[in-house]
Amino acid sequence: MSQQKYAFTDEEFWKNYMVKWFGRDLIDFWQKNCEIFNVNSEDITLNVETFSQEGSNVPTIIFLHGIAGYARLMLPFTSRLFKLGYNVVAPDLMGYGYNSEKHGHFTWDQHVNNIIDVINWAASHFKGDLFLGGASMGGPLAYATSCISQKIKGTICWCLWDLQDPDFIKNQTNLGKIALKAKGLFKFFGKALPSLRIPAPWVIGYETLSDPNEDIDEYVLNDRLAGRKISLAGATSLMFQSEPAIKYEDYEKDLLIVHPKNDLMVFPEFSRRIYRKLKQNNKRGENIEYHEIEDCFHFPLDNKNYETFSGLVGRFISKTQNKKKRRK
């Protein structure tokens, strides 16, 4: 399917998702409330989309996209977080969205560095506590980055799983057993041909991205700003660079995991595994929460799922803030 079959093309392609699934009002919301900043990171300039409350010392949520999307596709999440009264910062990570560099070319470590730079920028821009969140791959990235940033008060993950878990690689990626048996070969080609890009669905199938009766996977694969391709450096880095600096059992910040119960791209069991590890040695009284949302896919198309998520986030942040007040 060519872009000519869509109402909006090129840099406005994101509006197609809003018109078909999430509502035209999100286009108006973005045009009215979004302010775009440039943040230098990894020798490039990141596109950072920001929604700011007026004159308020309120928490700020930095919210990350996943492997298929970019900041503007997170509007069903970010618009509702903004409407709860928080500042929201949504960056396009290296290789995605409105960044000018080659799309799909990045490494895990570069994305973590991108997020650190955005955190530092947000800390200089906003006065309130900083929370780091993300959806899909943004969840593991948020966790990994929160492990090395002292500026983050709490972490919010729409899905959190171990990318190096052999069961995940075998059962939920298109590389499957091949990747487990030939990790050395993948590492070699990742170094020999780092910028060579392959179709992203060779790594993970977008047909499981959402409701199988809908065609959002076709939209993503026709969206020039989305994760249509991934470089060999990017694909191999997910296997070799994604181990977080702090084991889940030793994590010492408040953390919320929300997982869609009907998720076909990342089965809920993978988030449950992480939750069990987080709770295993939780002796410091961190607020560690896990929730599953009924009748919900990995990238939800029903707006009620986003309302449920934002409600959970609001209660989680309130708990974290109240705990901070009690300690004072």
Walkthrough of the structure:
- The chain has 328 residues and is an alpha/beta fold.
- It has one domain (3-327): Alpha/Beta hydrolase fold, catalytic domain (Rossmann fold).
- It is built from 12 helices and 10 strands.
- It has helices at 14-22, 25-33, 75-83, 108-125, 138-146, 166-172, 176-181, 183-192, 216-221, 232-240, 268-280, 303-327; strands spanning 35-41, 44-51, 60-64, 87-91, 130-135, 152-158, 197-199, 229-231, 254-260, 288-293.
- It has an 8-stranded mixed sheet with strand order 1-2-4-3-5-6-9-10, with helices on both faces. The protein has a two-stranded antiparallel ribbon with strand order 7-8.
- α3 packs across α12, α4 packs across α5 (138-146) and α8 (183-192) packs across α10.
- The longest helix has 25 residues, at 303-327.
Features:
two-stranded antiparallel sheet; alpha/beta; 10 strands; Rossmann fold; eight-stranded mixed β-sheet; 328 residues
